[in-house]
């Protein structure tokens, strides 16, 4: 499988968020088939593990924020001594689900915001659970819960499990599966997270807590990762993390780790490519385009593969989905679940830097995107502190 020079391949051999989640779970007694996280963490004797996830905070974005003086709290934490990658595709549905389950996308099946589901013969939005073409709701989504959550597994081993997340997400189908086994502590504003997090650290009771901040991602999408609005949100997040660290009891047996599910790249409006029109979808494809604007899954009609490839080749790297699957792009092949293979179609198109594939079912153009394999999208920070 040939990748272009700018592509960052997910490092499932020990340097990805998959390995980070697997190692945190293993410390609390959960067996894993995956390689341990490559970089040292001060886990020895830790009774409480707190994982903070700042959605879309790429390693480069954090480095720039530190240079601007916008992230003094994060700058004072101990960084991983080497690069850490997201998963592929570098998007929340794939990467955050990996952090919730300690499984790769090819194992848990959440392979993008939208995927082809053989079970219902449609491309489905995995957050809103509807057919993206007809908007017909998915009435039975139980089959999507393919692996146990990490919280359920630690709880079964006597470890208290908690998630600190926005109240708006509490009752979604994805949350009920991915956070199964955890006590859900909802917040209306992220400033409530420090007090909620501190309350999960109880003497004599080992615990695992995930704290999730999605606001930075939303602002980067709308205003761009290099916007004043994104800078302001990161300063806010830094203050909240400072308050969280201050609120924790100083027992010496708590490990705090901060990471991201993926980064963000600025998306020029003129970089949106309009080659997948309604006519193209109707004549050349067996179903609507799935995946992401920065990592698209296509199912060409028989005999039209070359035609679709010719439309996209000037703007994107094209991979056979079979090659991507067996080549380990979506997870270690030895652990990939064969029934999820059709979800990524027959052809995967990863746009070149600065480009995005717009299609009839896309939302309004955004100024920040992720999903592809540039360093901006793929490299994430891992910071830690023992408290």
How is this structure best described in words?
This protein has 387 residues and is an alpha/beta fold. The chain is 29% helix and 19% strand. It has 14 helices and 18 strands. The strands form five sheets. It has a seven-stranded mixed β-sheet. It has a four-stranded antiparallel β-sheet with strand order 12-13-15-14.
Largest sheet: 7 strands, mixed
Instruction: Give the overall form.
Output: globular
Main structural class? alpha/beta
Strand line-up in the sheet with most strands: 2-18-9-1-8-6-7
Strand % is 15-25%
Number of helices: 14
The number of distinct β-strands equals 18
Low-confidence stretches: none
Overall average residue pLDDT: 96
Helical amount among residues, as a percent range? 25-40%
What radius of gyration results from the CA coordinates?
20 Å
What distance separates the N and C termini? 44 Å
Write the layout of secondary structure elements.
Layout: H1 17-27, E1 48-54, H2 59-68, H3 72-75, E2 78-79, H4 92-101, H5 105-108, E3 114-117, E4 122-125, E5 130-131, H6 150-155, E6 160-166, H7 173-178, E7 183-187, H8 193-198, E8 207-213, H9 215-223, H10 228-247, E9 254-259, E10 265-266, E11 272-273, H11 278-284, E12 290-292, E13 295-298, H12 305-312, E14 316-320, H13 321-326, E15 347-351, E16 356-357, E17 368-369, H14 375-378, E18 382-386
Parallel strand pairs: 1-8, 1-9, 6-7, 6-8, 11-16
Antiparallel strand pairs: 2-18, 3-4, 4-5, 9-18, 10-17, 12-13, 13-15, 14-15
Organism: Deinococcus radiotolerans
Protein name: Phosphodiesterase
Pfam families: Phosphodiest
